[in-house]
Design a protein that fits this description.
The protein has 291 residues and is of the alpha+beta class. Helix content is 47%, strand content 14%. Helix 4 crosses helix 8.
Length: 291
């Protein structure tokens, strides 16, 4: 009588509140009365847990669990009243039901694929760590910044040319082993900047933490070596690698697990939709839909 939500009509009710942990799978988690003269809808713990798992994939908190249970009766009451009016025979109901069935099946499949993709073994992690070893390299990096402009300069283009010359000279001094903090101070004094120059120590960086235009060159450097002068948007920049190491596998284990699971899930999802094509009728959707 009550459709999909009437999971266990006519089952016996539990008269006393019982802690969820002590309920048997077939015991009623909730009972709805008064939907009609002789109707009682009882939902077992197993059935209600399944429903909660669908509606709250991350797990319901105590409030959402209780609030949903309290609203359950209202939903059944409206569903019962709708049936009495024959709305379950309407085209709107049939179309909605078809869509909800398809959407529910799609969601259930996605969750299964997510669970299967997340089952990453130690050997999978080890293989990924070995094959993608460059992703886990880390450098301790210092950076010398030579600004391209100065608001006090009378000729902006001439200042930029001068800054480029200073950067080239500082790069040669850095390559000979001079301290970058000293060079950064000399840079500011030479170009007429007042105030404290920035620190040259930018800490530890991985490839993903650097712009793609410079990461390749930086990670090709050995400790003590400096990059070429890099022309960035507002400055000329020289990088120096102070130290270099490969992060231990256990330190990046969670990251690898996430990446492997993500790649597997994408592959699984793509395999489902690989051959699917949607053709839109231009008469209905308009010419823009064809683009």
């Amino acid at each position: 009588m009550f459709g999909l939500l009437a999971l266990a009509a006519g089952a016996s009710a539990q008269s006393d509140p019982v802690a969820s942990e002590s309920l048997a799978p077939t015991d009623s988690a909730l009972v709805v009365r008064g939907l009609c003269d002789d109707c009682t809808v009882a939902v077992s713990k197993t059935q209600f847990d399944l429903l909660l798992g669908i509606l709250f994939p991350a797990g319901p908190n105590a409030n959402s669990k209780t609030n949903f249970a309290k609203g359950y009766g209202d939903v059944l009451a409206f569903a019962h009243a709708a049936k009495q009016l024959g709305l379950d025979q309407s085209p709107e109901y049939q179309v909605s039901l078809q869509w909800l069935q398809a959407k529910t099946l799609a969601d259930l499949l996605r969750r299964r694929l997510e669970k299967e993709s997340a089952a990453v073994s130690d050997s999978d992690i080890q293989a990924y760590y070995r094959e993608q070893s460059s992703r886990f390299e880390e450098v301790h990096l210092r950076r010398l910044v030579v600004p391209k402009s100065n608001l006090a300069a009378a000729d902006a283009r001439a200042f930029e040319i001068r800054a480029g010359e200073v950067a080239s000279a500082l790069r040669e001094r850095a390559a000979r082993g001079e301290d970058l903090d000293r060079l950064q101070k000399d840079c500011f004094e030479t170009l007429g900047f007042s105030g404290m120059p920035p620190s040259t120590d930018v800490g530890n960086r991985r490839r993903t933490g650097l712009a793609s235009e410079v990461s390749g060159e930086i990670f090709a450097l050995q400790p003590g070596e400096v990059s070429r002068v890099q022309a960035e948007a507002y400055s000329f920049v020289i990088y120096k690698v102070e130290a270099k190491r490969k992060l231990p596998r256990e330190q990046v284990r969670d990251e690898i697990l996430t990446e492997v699971a993500k790649a597997r899930l994408k592959k699984a999802l793509d395999s489902v939709t690989a051959n699917v094509r949607v053709e839109l009728n231009e008469t209905y959707f308009g010419a823009a839909s064809a683009q």
